[in-house]
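Q: Joint fold for the lines below.
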Amino acid sequence: MSSPAVSLYLDPQIRDWVLFPITLVMILVGILRHYVVLLLQSPPKKLARAAIREQRALIRSQILRATSANSPIPPSYYRSISSRLAAAFEAGTYLKDGPSEGDAPSTPANPMTDPAAMDGMMAGMKTQMVMMVPQMVIMGWINFFFQGFVLIKLPFPLTLGFKSMLQRGIETPDMDVRWVSSLSWYFLNFFGLNGLYRLILGNDNSAADASQTMMASPFAAGANQPGQPQDYVKLFKAEKDNLAFAEGLYSWMGDDVETRLLRKHGKL
Amino acid sequence: MSASFGSALHSLANYRAHNTRASQEVLEKGKLLLNSNAASKLGDDAWAFLEQLALAAIDVAKYDVADECIRQLAAKFPESPRVDVLTGIRMEATQPPETVLKFYEELLEADSSNAAIYKRQISVLIRTGKIEQAVLKLSEYLDTFYSDVEGWVELAELYSSCNQYTFATQALSHALLLAPQNPFYVLQFAETAYSADDIPLAVKMFMLAIDTVDRHTSDESIPTGVSIRAWYGVKLCCRVLSERSCSSASETPLPKNLNLLDELATERVLTAYSAGGTDNATGRELVFSWMGPSDRSGSRLHFVH
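A: Joint structure:
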């Protein structure tokens, strides 16, 4: 079936006017996208001091807990810090807007109403758009002009499993798997050009991660960005329990330090 | 000419990397570069160099050089908080502290999250002797930027300077939490606790300092640096504890085997002083005579050598 007699002969014009242009356009678009994303990036927002304090309050108790099983500080000091933090978490001293009045149910703020959160989400959406729109345009261009083109023959044999990957857009069950269709060439480039972008634009370019971020939806991408509203009331409540656990584990390094030292120097 | 520029640039970058405060050298090398307008050829390194030169120039009171550097930096980065800090330091050099404090206050109102400005403000307060305000500001600063170890140590020193040793130990306990591996903070904690007359706590912390430093050395090794000082501390505490009953504000229990500990501390300090050559003979005599009369437990110490 794939004997040389029935093999296809590709017009060299296809190589010059289809294969190379597609590759070139994709590289150039990737580079362009990198610079557009750079332009779109807004400088990181400055947080007010109260907001920083709220964010970092958890770190305090994490630092305290990190060494609690072998703590460098004596029991009375540990307990005073621990109980003070627990009380502050309970009362909401560290909350950005001060302690909450009364017992209003703590609902997480709707991100759509908070302008700061909207900004973060918009930034995520903008980069997503810059990623997606050119890809869609290129795909449309290839589909419109070069639909069903066979562009290249791979120099090595492949199994039938690769047929759907390499011959997308061509419905011929009998053609050798080594022939690559135009749409498949597009996908091969789309996923394969990252290394080239890294060479051209450096390691942390925004062109290379296009294929990764394409998979994520703009809303999901926005969710893990810093500056998104987090329900600190709940986090603080949970941290209070952690503090109680850590206090149960607490032991001071100094408890039997004299025994350790005396034993080391052979006095015991 | 370019070779000397190259070497000057290299040593300047070296000073920056190691945080060396060699202001006079920086100024001499930097002026050469500044005058020949080499900064424009440096690219992005130029700005770090200008900042370095400005600080060095203020250090040795060459204000014209500093002003030139700051002017170039401000032209490049108009809104930069880092340049604001430089401007503030420049003002501190010549203007009255009230003006500088007001300048910092305005900056903080515009951007309340600028840690460097806070620190400058606190340093001005300390310099002008307003310890009370400095302590207030510093506690406020540490309440937000908790993980600043040097800030906690500074707070402890401020408290110590006002004889508030208990507060100082509290500040140091935060430094200990943040850097549990640093024996110097443990030692400082111990000494502060000793000053606060919490002897049981002090002796424990002295031992912890020794434990931190000597963890990986053999028992035969000669104590050095931190551990000599800490052994001295143990010895001193043991002596105080044997002379009078001490209460502990932190309810720290007394160490067990106090006599053995006293003996060990004496032995360790004497080991440290016996090991050296003949050059510290007088010091050794003094140490031996200080160690001698403390031995009230009856058991003569077996002196090492």
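Q: Anything notable?
A: Residues 12 and 18 of chain B are 10 Å apart (CA to CA). The longest helix of chain B spans residues 225-243.
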